[in-house]
Each structure stands twice: as structure tokens, then as C-alpha cells.
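Batch manifest, entry 17 of 40.
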Amino acid sequence: MSTLTRFKKGDFLFHQGDASDRVLLIHSGEVEIWRNVGSDSVLLGHARDGEWVGEMGVIEGRTRSALARASEDGEAEVLTAHQFLERVSNDPVLARDLILRLSVRLRDIEDKITGDLHSFRQNGSSGGMSGTAPELSRANELGISIAAASAALQASIGAAPVRVTRLPFVIGRIQAEEEAMPAQRPDLAIKDDVPFRLSRQHFMIARIRGGFIVEDLGSTLGTIVNSQAVGHHFARDFAPLHRGENRIVAGGSDSPFIFLVRIG
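Output type: C-alpha cells
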């Protein structure tokens, strides 16, 4: 059986590099997720009531890629790796959520291998790629735009909103001199300094099932979409966008790269 554990503010639930031997389901309180990058520590986001912590490390069979520390007193259900996998086997909703996330990851890998995004950018504007025109049309009709909500971002992209005229639309960092060119150039490339908050391909705006999402592209520090943390440290790799204004933070909750994405 699983067990309940109480934690106090400041307690570490696990450390980066630990074995992924258990999963926690937060019942109350709040847990911070931190990633150590060289000599710096970056706050990626928070887990609260009803959210899982540490599940992807168990599923992927890898060590912890971040640390979890309580930011409030609380309680969590602790499952061993075996217990968690048993629960997944007997809980269709939980299993579906995990399968969906892994499916999105697999699609990302396939996109990078086949160069779909590259082909889209090469051919989309001239209409040479079949099946892209309806998506382009919808993007234009909805008037998707990206604006800077911080001085650091405004210094890079300017004060005027950037209009999104094609999907998917990738946002990332300008590569450093010693880095290789990414497989697909970002549609919006942003200058960042060491230690980098942005990854070269950090997140993209895309259409899915009649709506729009922001999908983290396996970035080092994750993406926060309307207060929901996404990325390979968290329960999901993407989050929906709603009509109107959406707040996107790339590179941890205290990152200076804050975007306002407006739909419609």
C-alpha cells in the first residue's frame, strides 16, 4: 500500500541525481521544482494539490533531473515505482494522460527527424506544401500575436507585437558561437546570455484538435503557460491557449523572458 507523509516548509522530497524510486501525489501544501545548472539554481515551477511529482523519472527509468523542495507545509501520498505503475495499469484516466504525453514526445522526435518544420518554413509561404493552407488561414483569421511583457524580452524583440502568420511557430534562443545550428531555426530567435534560461528551440505555438497550444520542445528549464508548468520535468509537455491574452514564461518561474500571446 502507498503511504502518507507530512512535510514541512524547506524539506527536500528528492534531489537532482537521486534514483527515481518513488512518486508523490500532493494532497496539500506546495512543492517547488528546481533545476541546478552549473553553479546556478533555477526555479522551474510548483506542484500543488492533486499533482504528481517524480512520475516521469520512474516511467523513463532515469535519475531525477530536478529537485523537489516544500515551499509550504503539506502532505503527500508516496508510491513506490512498482505501486505507481500498478496504479497506472488500473486507472484509465491516469494512463491516458501519460500516454498522451509520451505520444506528444514521440511526435516531436519524428518531426525533428523528418524535418517537417523545416519543410514547412521552406515551402509554406509559396503554397508548395499540401495541407498547410487551411492552418495558415486560420492563424491569420484569429490574429495570433506575441508581445513582450518584460523589459528583457522587449529589448530583444521590440515593443511592437510580433504577428504569427504560420503554424507551428517556434520560439528559441540565438545559438552561441560554439553551438551547432539547431535542426530547425526558430521563427522568433531571442538573445540570451550565460547561464542560459532559453533553449535554442524552447517552445512552439501549434494547433491541435481545433484549438491552440503551447508545447515545450524539451527545453532545459521548462515553460509556464498561464501558471501551468509544462516540459519534461512536469506532468505535461503542453498546455492549451485560450481566446484573449495568455501569459507565457520561458526558462523557470523567475525568468525574465515573459511573453503575452494573444489569440483573436
